[in-house]
């Protein structure tokens, strides 16, 4: 009897919360009873072939192997993918996730990453998932690390351990979005450090929200490899165009 009463109270609480805070589509932000509203589901396009064989950005032709960036520079990581091109509703969604406390979006993003790239993660034989860290001051201001939220939920879905402690951001870097390629590289120089005592593994999966030129992933991958990690891959929610 007591268990039944507690269950009824819990269900009632969920209904009240649903009325006070109705579920909204993680892409357009409109109220919906579904995980994602019908309009967004109809127009949501995951990145498909042809795409860059290194970073996974969409490219124009099957005859091309790499996007412009990857064709003109060496990366520290092995390979990676982004789910969606960073524009329109996707760009707005990631903005709300990062800056408007829409932490709940992490569940949707992690589920989509697992569905789209779970087979790739298994093929890469990932031993450990590591989110790209925030500088401590920025994390205090925001209240959370958006990449860590996604990483933890993805790790739970794929049954892979998550380490959010051993890779640290030790410099308070400036936002990358308004910088050119050289400025991005300079901005991130020596920005990450791996803690002493970190036990290296064969392969690591880095999780971040956005991939543009790859400088953030490269800098993190470089430090992990210095610490003994053999291979580094990445997944992101969104990614720039490859042309």
From TrEMBL:
This is ComF family protein. Belongs to the ComF/GntX family. InterPro entries: ComF/GntX_DNA_util-trans, DZR_2, PRTase-like, PRTase_dom. Pfam families: DZR_2. SUPFAM superfamilies: PRTase-like. Residues 16-71 form the Double zinc ribbon domain. It comes from the Bacteria. Signal peptide: none annotated. Gene3D superfamilies: 3.40.50.2020.
């Amino acid at each position: 009897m007591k268990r039944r009463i507690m269950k009824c109270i819990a269900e009632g609480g969920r209904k009240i919360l649903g009325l006070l805070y109705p579920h909204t589509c993680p892409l357009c932000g409109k109220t919906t009873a579904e995980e994602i509203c019908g309009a967004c589901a109809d127009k949501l396009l995951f990145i498909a072939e042809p795409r860059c064989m290194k970073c996974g950005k969409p490219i124009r032709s099957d005859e091309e192997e790499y996007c412009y960036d990857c064709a003109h520079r060496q990366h520290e990581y092995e390979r990676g993918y982004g789910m969606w091109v960073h524009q329109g509703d996707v760009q707005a969604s990631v903005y709300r996730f990062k800056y408007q406390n829409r932490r709940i979006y992490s569940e949707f993003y992690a589920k989509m990453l697992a569905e789209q790239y779970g087979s790739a993660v298994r093929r890469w034989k990932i031993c450990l998932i590591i989110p790209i860290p925030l500088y401590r001051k920025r994390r205090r201001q925001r209240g959370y690390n958006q990449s860590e939220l996604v990483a933890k939920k993805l790790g739970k879905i794929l049954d892979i351990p998550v380490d959010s402690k051993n890779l640290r951001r030790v410099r308070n870097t400036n936002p990358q979005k308004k910088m050119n390629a050289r400025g991005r590289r300079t901005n991130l120089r020596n920005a990450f450090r791996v803690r002493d005592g970190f036990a290296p593994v064969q392969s690591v999966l880095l999780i971040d929200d956005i991939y543009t030129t790859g400088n953030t992933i490269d800098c993190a991958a470089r430090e992990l490899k210095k610490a003994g990690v053999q291979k580094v891959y990445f997944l992101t929610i969104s990614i720039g165009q490859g042309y």
